Amino acid sequence: MRRGFIRCFILSALIAAAPRLEAQKLVPQVKLILERLPLEKQKRLADFESAITTYLSDADWTGDTGWELPLNLQIYLQDVSVSFEDRYSGICLISNMSDLQFYDKYWKFPYMAGDRIVHDPNLYEPFTGFLNFYIYLIIAGEYDKYSPLGGSPWYEKAKAIYDQARFNSAFIWGWDERGKLLQSLTSLDAQPFRRSKYCFFTAFDASSQADTSAVRLGLEGLSLLESVRKRDPEHKETRDFLNAHHMSIAGLFRNDPEALNRLAAADSAHAEVYRRVGEGR
């Protein structure tokens, strides 16, 4: 009974882990935390959260039709206004609610309550430029799952925003760090991890359709993942990916004890899960 339940659970996890891009659009959940602002400014920004939500959900981010991606955005604001302008500093946590997450505490921008937030890819503004940069990083990370290095065009869009931001000296705070982040995600050293995501998600999809190529693709992904862990045992993106998908990956190898042992060695944080899957529990 337990063995049958585990197998059903693994299959469900595999199917859930492999949403295809043609079924998607940006669906944001925005939380704006204003408690550190003066009461007067809290009142002025009462509609800011809904304006950000509308901005994120209404913009055409990729040009694809029928495209959906959950997005969680939390912004903690503080007032850093100057005599001639309302300014804010923000601490931001943005994620796809799964395996992509970014935290940034180096953000300043001007904003006058009631101003319309406009999505214009050709115009850099400190507020929208920051948001757009991270949205493109998340979109890039998603597209890497569905073709080899498929996120590259969106990493290029993030790079274009970074290049524009460097010319805005008044609000350049944090862009050195964002440039380093972008470099870490797009360097040659990042390619094995990016390719492993494609292998694993293609394997998830194949497994959900009882395709015999699932194990082969999974093993390709595992070999790439092992190379990443060997070079950098603390690689953040790999850790986030495994935290989100370790059960689905284990399901690919439920009949391959050697692969499960390799997986446990590469991902000791979930070694007990892999052992239990190998035992059919």
N- and C-termini, Cα separation: 10 Å
Strand elements, count = 4
Largest sheet: 4 strands, mixed
Strand content: 5-15%
Calculate Rg over CA atoms: 21 Å
SS element count, helices? 11
> What count of domains describes the coordinates?
2
The secondary structure category is: alpha+beta
Topology as a string of helices (H) and strands (E): HEHHEEEHHHHHHHH
- Average the pLDDT over all residues and give the rounded result: 91
Task: Estimate the global geometry from the Cα principal axes.
Answer: elongated
Strand order of the largest sheet: 1-2-3-4
How would you describe what is shown here?
The structure is a single chain. With 281 residues, this protein is α+β, with helices and mostly antiparallel strands. The chain contains eleven helices and four strands; from the N terminus they run αβααβββαααααααα. Helix 7 runs antiparallel to helix 8 and helix 7 packs parallel to helix 9. The chain is elongated and about 65 Å long.
Properties at a glance:
four-stranded mixed sheet; disordered N terminus; 2 domains; alpha+beta; 11 helices; 281 residues; single chain
Task: Please give a quick description of this structure.
The protein has 281 residues and is an alpha+beta fold.
What's the structural blueprint in terms of helices and strands?
Blueprint: H1 2-16, E1 24-33, H2 39-44, H3 48-58, E2 67-79, E3 87-95, E4 101-110, H4 126-143, H5 152-165, H6 175-186, H7 191-208, H8 213-231, H9 236-252, H10 257-266, H11 271-278
Helix pairs in contact: 1-7, 1-9, 4-5, 5-6, 7-8, 7-9, 8-10, 9-11, 10-11
